[in-house]
Amino acid sequence: MLDATQEQSDPGHVMTVLGPVAPMALGAVLMHEHLLCDLTPPANRGRAAEDVEITLETAFDVAYRPGAHRGNHRLSDVGLATREAALLCRAGGGALVEVTTGGLSPDPAGLAAIARATGLHVVMGAGFYTEPYLDPDTLSQSVEQLADTIIAQLTRGAGDAAIRCGIIGEIGCSWPLTPFERRSLQAGAWAQRATGAAITVHPGRDVLAPHEILDVFEAAGADVGRVVIDHMDRTCLDVAEVIALARRGCVVEYDFFGIETSNYWFGVVDLPNDWMRIRAIARLFDAGLGEQVAVSHDICTRSRLQGMGGHGYGHLLRNVIPLMRDRGFGQSEIDTLFRDTPRRLLTLPGDAEASTTHEGEDA
Ligand SMILES: [Zn+2]
Fold it and tell me: Average pLDDT in the 128-141 region?
């Protein structure tokens, strides 16, 4: 443990795939994205069929029914992801939180290559996605075993490479929670207590799901102030529900920015569009909860990439910030959403070992 003098002099650090960086170095941050991942539903994997080709003729339909086109949910091309990340940098982005967890084919070395090629700070997520994506061996593990894996990903490195995670999640949850998913959340809480890392959680598709998750975290001794509940856009459609959730102390995340469609491919949900998200966030600021809001796009399909005719990772910076200004947001609200809250969440406590590892690789 650090004494009070050290705590004052050490502002902590953010752990990226290229090593620790100073929190102030991040710039504008996207809190929930995927650069390299495979969200193809397990039942559809390995089928002998052609991947969809995105052309001007198919682009709308692939974007409208993203799950109905083979290969659209697979982001495995490091060159393509690097070009998309470079477009984010050109739009003013400084950092991206890559929340591809176990079950979704995380690629730490690929993320490090993207960060090295573009200068984008990439923070990688530790832990496990929802039960249907995981193998029987993982599903049989105890809380202790799962926590050991998450802590190792945060402190030693993920996979074979010594590339460290900087956040826990997205932890995948169904509604109601499966026994494995409950252990996965408890393991996340234990790993948070050991490392100080923030946790980001993909809740099941029910308005009660985030509350069940917070109950598990509270019982496991997690710091709920460092928990982000993702996907408000399809989980809590009434802003009063989002306000009630934020009043429990967590961060609430609108992370479907750029999705402006009436067709939700995982069921019947009246998805908001971007101005409705902005209006909901304004209500949270009015309620004094503006420091508990995160924003992102959650890109996990090819059809949303700029090179494939989609909005790309720069959409919030290029297009949504001007919409926010039109609706009365000032620079201070915009800084809260894109800089201050992400920095608070991603900053890990001062740690001499961590802050000397890989020093100098983060230019
Ligand atoms: Zn998710």
Answer: 97
How many distinct structural domains can be found in the chain?
Answer: 1
| Residue 169 Cα to ligand 1 middle (Å) | 9
> Which residues lie at CB < 5 A from ion ligand 1?
170, 202
Domain of 68 in residue numbering reads as: 31-44+64-356
Indicate whether 10 belongs to any domain: no
> Is 168 a domain residue?
yes
Distance 36 CA to ligand 1 centre (A): 14
Is residue 58 situated within a structural domain?
Answer: no
Distance 353 CA to ligand 1 centre (A): 32
Residue 92 belongs to a domain with what CATH number? 3.20.20.140
From the CA of 202, how far away is ligand 1's center (Å)? 5
Residue 97 CB neighbours (<10 A): 28
Q: Compute the distance between CA of residue 338 and CA of residue 265 in angstroms, rounded to an integer.
A: 28
- Residue 3 pLDDT level (bands cut at 50, 70, 90): very low
Q: Report H helices in 48-96.
A: 59-64, 78-90
Is the backbone peptide bond immediately before 170 cis, with ω within 30 degrees of 0?
yes
Centre of ligand 1 from the C-alpha of residue 48, in Å: 27
**Residue 289 pLDDT > 70, yes or no?**
yes
Cα atoms found within 13 Å of the Cα of residue 17, Cβ hemisphere only: 30
